[in-house]
Amino acid sequence: MNPSSPRGRLRDALLCVGERGDVDEASLSAAVTAALRELAWEALGERSRVELVTVGAEDHPWGRSLGLRLADYDVELSDVLLYADQSDLPPQVQESCPTLCQEEWEAVLLVSKLIFIGLQSEPEPVHADAGQHPQVTPRPPRSVARERFCQALAAISERPDLHQDELTAQLRTALLNFASETPDNKDAAQRIAVLHTGEPQQGPRLCLSRSGLAFVKVVLSAGGCPVPSCVLEEFPDLTQDEWNAVIHVTGMTLMAFETEPARDVG
């Protein structure tokens, strides 16, 4: 992948979120959101709602971590997808992807959720400082499992020397080592593959193993779909624009880890 391309810049910025070290969170958020907007403008134009997403921290009982979240609703994108992955296959997605089945739709959302979790920083201890966090926060290194998952994602675009079957095997193994071998995760892992989709000039990308549909195509075809009822039950104040932002940022994140399409010369 060309690191100077919008995809390359977004990929590099997303991978920085979970890297070890001290970080100015405002600068990190600015880098990610700028790259998101650039790629989204190229791919979606005025339809994009990615400006509603930022990089922010959340305090959990087990620690504090940085990740992608809705700026105003204050919820992680992975949490929204956690409830969305049981939603019915939207009619407009079915129309755009006629060979897609319900189980594949759920798998796309589940894997997308795990990608967002994988890109988050490792939780750090929460200090009792009256809720005030320093501007510069030391982050622990990625766990081995999380690092291998990130490397397996990056390999799709960065390792043209690897056959798509090897890329697929690495990604499936890394996903289950990172996310645990629950029945849902094991089923989702078997539904993913790194494939050349047959589209002109398109290199390897994350696809569904049965239908060959690219995750990016499936996700972005859901743009503008009504907020699923299972999501609204958990997040009743979530707006349509915020749901569109979740879909758009999911699509851009997946696109950032695809092989850059070849460009015509002359």
Distance separating the two termini: 20 Å
Number of domains: 1
The low-confidence runs, each spanning 5 or more residues with pLDDT under 50, are none
Which geometry do the CA atoms define? globular
Q: On the 0-100 scale, what is the average pLDDT?
A: 89
Polypeptide structure, described:
- With 266 residues, the protein is of the alpha+beta class.
- It has one domain (6-125, 143-257).
- Helices cover 50% and strands 14% of the residues.
- It contains eleven helices and seven strands.
- It has helices at 6-17, 25-44, 77-84, 91-96, 102-119, 144-158, 164-179, 183-191, 215-220, 229-234, 240-256, and strands at residues 21-24, 53-60, 63-70, 75-76, 136-139, 192-196, 204-208.
- Strands 2-3-4 form a three-stranded antiparallel sheet, with helices on both faces.
- The longest helix has 20 residues, at 25-44.
- The radius of gyration is 18 Å and the shape is globular.
- The model has no long low-confidence stretch (mean pLDDT 89).
